[in-house]
Amino acid sequence: MNFTDIFIRKPVLSLVVTFVILVAGFQSIGSLNVRQYPRSENAIVTVTTAYIGANAKLVRGFITTPLERAIAAADGIDYIDSTSSQGLSTIQARLRLNYDANKALAEISSKVNQVRGDLPPEAEVPVINIETADSRFASAYLRFTSSILKQNEITDYLVRSVQPRLTALPGVQRADILGARTFAMRIWLDPVRMASLGVSPSDVRAALAANNYLSAVGQTKGSWIQVDLTADTNLTSVDEFRRLVVSKDGERFIRLEDIANVSLGAEDYDTEVRFSGETAVFMGIWPLPNANSLDVIKRVRSEMKEIEKDLPTGLQAGIAYDGTVYIEDAIKEVVKTLGETLLIVVVVIFLFLGSLRSVLVPVVAIPISLIGAVFLMQIFGFTINLLTLLAIVLSVGIVVDDAIVMVENVERHMREGKSPFDAAILSARELFGPIVAMTLTLAAVYAPIGLQGGLTGTLFREFAFTLAGAVLVSGIVAITLSPMMSSKLLTAHSEDAWLPRHINAVFEKIRSLYARILDATLGARPAVYTAWIILTLVTVLLYTQSPKELAPNEDQGVIFGILDTPSNASIDQMTIHATEVNKVFQSFPETAYTFQITQTFGGFSGMGLKSWTQRDRTVFDMKNEVQAGLGKVPGVSSFAVVPPALPGGGDFPVEIVVASTADTERILEFVEQLKLKATTSGKFAFPPIVSVKYDKPQAEFIIDRDKVAALGLDLAQVGADLSAAAGGNFVNRFNMDGRSYKVIPQITRLGRLNEDQLLDIRIRGPKGKLIPLSTVATVKNKVEPRNLQRFQQMNAVKLSGVAIVPLDQALKFLEDEAAKILPRGYILDYTGESRQLRAEGPAKFIFTFALAIVMIFLVLSAQFNSFRDPFIILLGSVPLAMFGALIFTFLKMPAPDVPFWTNGWTTTMNIYSQIGLVTLIGLIAKNGILIVEFANHMQHEGQSKLEAVRNAALTRLRPILMTSLATVFGHFPLILVTGAGAAARNSIGLVLVGGMTIGTIFTLLIVPSLYMLMAKEHKKPA
Hints:
The structure is a single chain. This protein is an alpha+beta fold. It has 31 helices and 31 strands. The strands form 8 sheets. Strands 1, 2, 3, 4, 21, 22, 29, 30 and 31 form a 9-stranded antiparallel sheet that branches. β24 (about 730-735) and β25 form a beta hairpin. It is elongated and about 125 Å long. The mean pLDDT is about 85.
């Protein structure tokens, strides 16, 4: 008795196996986490250090460089990128994918602490944060608006009441306040009153430092009791600061209120935040790198409902932007596609078999295989995400194949006169080998995807193993349950009914037509071989000429605007321009809301669109119009961009870095040449943005050192007075309601409207007398960089932009031009999406593709006990399926945003289409397996090689057409889907449908001829 006979002779055993699969799967469904993409460690460690008043060069030399050198010694870093600007150093250490973020954070913190003592004493303590690199944007932005409360009052309420509640939620890493105006004691110095009363700026600073003192007195120690001690040496209110004695003029006290206006203000006034045109304060919610953003934002939404109940009068709150809405909509779309796929596959099977009894066998196999795959997902720790759901959708058209082949073979034997039981026994024995081969082939094809590293491996590991798991379960079902059901459900005269009879008649006509074409191809084999060689060579050409990108852009329901400001812009000027930008956003009927964060050095804004069901146009239809509108706003440069489709992208798709040990100014000269080439090429939506600009006006006080010495002064005193007057650095902190806030002395704005006014500042001169700064200094105006960048500890300049051609083509253009422009010693590197594309480039795909071929070849060699048969199967099917699939990438219009007649049914070569090509290897190889295996069997029965392959092709025609059409029509909804996440599903669907359709036709015609050329002669056993 054969192994397969057991499950037919013992139907209860077959049902038990099925129930075990179902029970295991059902208990797994509720325990799986839901997220957008598979879980990965993709993080950035950011080190931010403030050095108030210092220019970019000073920050780079004394803050950024020593910190970079220390941080670079930490393990797990992919690259280090830094920016030094006025008063601020920002260093970002991008970690290697899936490196332990907590370990990296601890090591980087240790390295930073080692060099703390080397930093200037005036610099603030470096602040170290870790955040997910999946997106440059928070998962959600909350808005808080009020017509009654000031922004600093709103900020203080958020810090005290809202921020602690949100950061305490599981999975929330931080809740950053954007547009915050934190309370500060502002000492607005009046230089005229100070001069008349003989007070210098450093006198004020010294008085604040000496008289706002936190004293830790201790406690008494008596024999029986002890008492805690304290002293009111610190200042806690505006009135106390006003009454502070700064100096003494004879018997008269000069108090702070005599020379300054003291008010409870804000630390800075250089940020403006608006929501749909109204002034607001935002709070960005950042989940932990390994947290489920869907669950996190659900908790935030729930907590916000409770927070809104406690808000003070006049304060309104809401969710301005929720990035998880797109994720939820995308998951709903995938589930909808799954339902459509199931329905289509059932209809296709019914139209081929014509009997509800026959249809029931493969239809039952579908849910059992999918539920079994869910159990395997639980075992491997996978999540329910867009890619595992896509794997389940794809598996619907695949898992049914084995059951279809089994049912069709049983019916064939029944037409030959056998009983259902005997037909099932014989079919199970005949198909055990082919089903095992097909199952292992499909499972093997996904191994290289699941085991490779990098972004593709991280994203598609769960996809690959979920699909492989579903295929393995379907193989088990086809061997155990399908034969048993066929023996019980099929009847000997079921094909006498009207519909099966007509279906069989139609198929006989198709079979007769195929027989005539097959005979013609077998009779003209040299022509077939020539055609096969030509198609294979054309396939290579189609691949090399297909436009390439990392991933197709998705309509995520939002268009972001990046604001590039003039170098000398004030916040007042930028607010006017931001208002005009908001008018552009609001002019589109699809706009649901707008948000803006405007600062003196740049800005970030966006327009949230109505849901996909409430608008007719996609973000791609609108983006050029938005850009045209933004281009008309005078005074600023605004750029419309869409969020990256995959985690880990940057602000722009094109981000290329030129680095060298040369001066930044010299690097900039070459980058400007590169920018000019890019602008005139017509390959970019707007002139690429250069990250470093030497256009920031700077006034340098030139100190006459001889005069300083002659007057008995020193440069430290002069610098201290200047810094205290205009620097805006805080002296110390004061306590208000249990929290500390900064004390910041600074000349009032009217006293520093221009640099010449500062020459009238009085500094401490000989014998304690005040003298004008102009006595020892003059002003020299010059131009300095807005910021200075470094990359991998070298001076660097980044070129960023949006390409209107495929990303790979744009990068190749820049690389070719850079090779002509850059001298030796200059390095070209990438960040963001461009870095991902180069890391996941064609070489990596070709290696994965080749490895998949090798894996299938080895599996088939073991199954057929031959090295020839796998060659016939793979050579006769894979190149032809690739030809069919690559037609739909080759015909893609190179400019994605340009309307073209092929746009609706073509795609680029991206990681989704590449995964589709690898999947196609296993799918199309199944057709060759059925023909070759049966042809070998026919030879063993005594037929010649020609008779055997002809009969095998004709016999296996029906199951091949059934399985192929089930796959094609099952995947066809992927081509038609719209809405959230549609572009990725369109891409993989086009490749699979096109490849299977054209590949199946060619396989049926070419595999038999290749079998005649390469197959071994099999003798009938004696």
